[in-house]
Amino acid sequence: xxxxxxxxxxxxxxxxxxxxxxxxxxxxxxxxxxxxxxxxxxxxxxxxxxxxxxxxxxxxxxxxxxxxxxxxxxxxxxxxxxxxxxxxxxxxxxxxxxxxxxxxxxxxxxxxxxxxxxxxxxxxxxxxxxxxxxxxxxxxxxxxxxxxxxxxxxxxxxxxxxxxxxxxxxxxxxxxxxxxxxxxxxxxxxxxxxxxxxxxxxxxxxxxxxxxxxxxxxxxxxxxxxxxxxxxxxxxxxxxxxxxxxxxxxxxxxxxxxxxxxxxxxxxxxxxxxxxxxxxxxxxxxxxxxxxxxxxxxxxxxxxxxxxxxxxxxxxxxxxxxxxxxxxxxxxxxxxxxxxxxxxxxxxxxxxxxxxxxxxxxxxxxxxxxxxxxx
Length: 375
What we know:
The chain is of the alpha/beta class. It has twelve helices and twelve strands.
């Protein structure tokens, strides 16, 4: 099946998302971890930490180039969390020490959360400078920026601003802030932006649906709110900017928060979002089958199959991965498929349970397999 569909140079696909791609976060180096600990203890200054981050980010960007990736990220080396760090940089949003961490399968994160205390807006966000540094060292490679989707603020934040008891006002200010953010990253040179989103996973299981109802909401209405939030946030993006979304089931110390396939939300995800690509987790049986991909109707929507796990170091059987790509191509044309790890390697600074060398081996594995499939 795979071989029969390789017909022309269009399969090379030289724009983002790439045939062999990655979600973004990378294992924090010991030097980064030590420096962050020293900064927290008051042993080094913020400037010293920044210089160490610059050095380590430069190193891992060069390593990504050496591995063969077309898109390079800063590994989220300046962040403790994949989402809270960005959200706290928005106007009207604050971080705070919560009573408990986020529950994962068999473990919890450290206690931290965000709350909305003022009017949400995007101004002078520190991650603009983070992106500019990455852009300057990316060279001929594509600098990829990752930020949480607007749904993450709605779903994770404690809302203390009385103004936002009106959901419509919250929706308006939040999507306006993201429109400003997208334009600001574009003006800084960004042409490949990824929205990361764990909120969609709440629709994948009965337990998740019960969680929605416990919030006083209905699953169908929340689906539509999430979709409108994404589409409105990206509605004014420049035509030469690619925006993808990674749909995640949780990633902390090689464990997870959610299970279940895409079935219950497949029409909304695959035929209702205006993104240019979707990074999907398909690394194990918890992710369900490829059948929901039948709702992919747009020929310009790229589906990035996360068939390589970032949670453990063992390399997948390449022939099995190729067969799974072939299976997926029964629902989506091979020309619209790409390959990546199912998630990043360190959604939080703690990272998954594998070594840095295993991480690079995983990324090489992605690229070697993609090169064979899309020759």
